[in-house]
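Figure 2 data, in text form.
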Amino acid sequence: MSLIFFIGTLMMTAVVTYGFNLDNFDQLNDAKKSPDKWIVIKNLLVPAGKTLDLTGLQNNTVIEFTGHVTFGYQEWEGTLITLKGKNITVLGKRGHLLDGGGQRWWDGKGGNGGKKKPRFIQVSLVDSTVTGLHIKNSPRHCFMINSSQNLRVQNTTIDIKDGAKSGGHNTDGFGVSSSRNVTISNSVVYNQDDCFATTSGSDTVFENAKCVGGHGISIGSMGSGNVVERVVIRNCRVLGNTNGIRIKTRRGETGAVKNVTFDDIEMKDISKYGVVIQGNYYNSGPKGDPTPFPIENLVIRNVRGHVAKSGTNILVWVAPGSAKNWTWGSKITGGSKENPCKGVPQSLPIRCGKK
């Protein structure tokens, strides 16, 4: 036996094939039953009106996205990708792309009318990690986290820049609800709505993010008896958004916001409000006097930046007695539009509505 043949044979026997290569949508159910619990999703076309349904996964499954994943066009209000399971690892490999093709649906109306538009991805994960996803052009809401626990989402890029000129609307980046102990770190979001928003749940961290072109970082909108508590938003840059940071509670509804911290937030070229906390929120715009709604133990620390001259640096409009135990440290400049404030805790150093 020649030395070359021996080495070649040895190399061939050393090759290990792992994972179920899912490149045909019809094989989805077989992939979820893969005995080695490793699904490689590569260059997959998801048919129009169908969901890439990654629910019912075996515990300890690895989902690996590689290549280009695309979706057929149909007007519908479903979800393009769903993920559900325990001890799940989701990996976006270098060079992959999850392309929603949102421009086919965009009409400037988002979820408020016009074409029926699907959401992009919804996850319900426990004791799991999602790393390195690159998402492009969601038709509307992009990355929704619901009923999750002990979840870490990291190094995510949400690129909906095209929506700015092509009618993208309600293209929210991350949304968290009914979840506990969720951390989202090292993300970049280009979109036309909230970069991040949480509407219920506890022990949420949103950190090390860059938000461009959207509506800012939000708590809410709050109502329906929901409670948000123990949230930390830190080390974020908010650039070219309509708002910097905001808390919005809906008029006439109940719930609570407790123990929320905004720390080390830099904003630049904000068009409307640097910091806005309002208790009379409607989707169509604020109306009337604010409704009593507890916003307790709020910390604003090292929140800084610039608002356009036509905008307002700080607006607080909450029912008297709603705000309790606030700590405030901000330096926001530029805005010249002055608005009256309501419900600000006494002796709090807020230059409300001022330059």
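Caption note: The CA atoms of residues 171 and 274 lie 21 Å apart.
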